[in-house]
From TrEMBL:
Compartments, as annotated in UniProt: Cell membrane
Family, as annotated: Belongs to the binding-protein-dependent transport system permease family.
SUPFAM superfamilies, sorted: MetI-like
Keywords associated with the record: Cell membrane, Membrane, Transmembrane, Transmembrane helix, Transport
UniProt name for this protein: Carbohydrate ABC transporter permease
Organism whose genome encodes this protein: Streptomyces aureus
Membrane-related topology note: Multi-pass membrane protein
Matching PROSITE patterns: ABC_TM1
The organism's taxonomic lineage, starting at the top: Bacteria, Bacillati, Actinomycetota, Actinomycetes, Kitasatosporales
Length: 311
């Protein structure tokens, strides 16, 4: 009898809340119109125009002339283009391998209650506030072989001309990208680490698990979905980076750091071949989309469920 009365009381308490929310539905489509119009105007329309231009011959003056598949045929017969794709993938993969572990460790640390954590985190996030152009100019000055840091530490840098050889130039590009964008991914991991239920760590402590075991058996599994999101952002950003290469290496030495985005700039704005430049741009979009979809499919991210206990 008592159980029946209790259930009736719970149902009675729920009914007013249900009545209050009964008339509340999802926002109408009109709320999404401004964002939809912005996306269509500044993303879809330019992408369609680029796709159209990729089948034309145009030097920026007059009217584009239809060229069929000429741009695409030349594209895949161009050794510089094929090498630029390889370099883009290489720099992107190296960026992911460097930034991911650093971001995870720093993000988990920043999510804790260490002494002076807030002050140190604020200082660490300063590079994220700078533009890629400012960061590139800064590091180009610091790495100048005549007046920069290498000239004062020849025992470490040799002749100091890091940008004069392919391995050194690629290493600098990866380092500068990590220096600027690791704080962004750290911020993502910091928020995700703070969302991990503390009861999991408390249970692990009762079972005698130390800090290292807790990290590998609780923290990392709980950050799995965040890792996939972060890696997709790294892949897209790495394949489309441009200004860092433009300022630091200008594709050199020779074509050793001419990645696809920079080669697109050379074709379109230096050679005034906007048809070929548009073809490279469209190819980059396709490659970045395919890689992102593969990562999503292989990782099971498309079947992502909440990792919070009880949800």
């Amino acid at each position: 009898m008592t159980t029946t009365v209790t259930k009736a009381a719970v149902v009675a308490e729920r009914r007013p809340a249900q009545r209050r929310t009964a008339g509340v539905g999802r926002p109408g489509f009109a709320w999404a119109l401004p964002a939809t119009a912005f996306f269509v105007l500044f993303a879809v329309v330019p992408l369609v125009l680029v796709a159209v231009l990729s089948f034309t011959s145009w030097n920026g003056l007059g009217s584009p002339r239809f060229a069929g598949l000429d741009n695409w045929t030349k594209l895949f017969d161009d050794p510089v283009m094929l090498n630029s794709l390889w370099l883009s993938v290489l720099i992107t993969v190296l960026g992911v391998l460097v930034q991911t572990p650093l971001s995870i460790l720093l993000g988990v640390w920043a999510a804790g209650r260490q002494r002076n954590r807030a002050i140190l985190s604020a200082i660490y996030f300063v590079p994220l506030l700078l533009s890629a152009t400012a960061v590139s100019v800064l590091w180009r000055t610091l790495l100048d072989p005549n007046f920069g840091v290498p000239s004062q530490a020849k025992w470490l840098f040799g002749d100091g001309n890091l940008l004069g050889m392919q391995s050194g130039a690629i290493g600098v590009l990866v380092f500068v990208g990590a220096w600027q964008f690791t704080p962004f991914h750290t911020l993502i991991y910091q928020g995700a680490a703070r969302a991990i239920p503390q009861v999991l760590y408390q249970a692990a402590q009762i079972d005698g698990a130390g800090t290292v075991r807790q990290f590998f058996h609780i923290t990392l599994p709980q950050l799995r979905n965040t890792m996939i999101t972060s890696m997709i952002l790294m892949v897209v950003g790495g394949l489309t980076t441009f200004d860092t290469v433009l300022i630091l290496t200008q594709g050199g030495p020779g074509t050793d750091t001419t990645i696809s985005a920079y080669y697109m700039y050379q074709k379109a704005f230096k050679s005034f071949d906007f048809g070929a430049g548009s073809a490279i741009a469209l190819l980059l979009v396709v490659v970045a989309t395919v890689i992102s979809l593969v990562v999503v499919r292989v990782s099971g991210y498309d079947k992502m469920r909440s990792s919070v206990e009880g949800l």
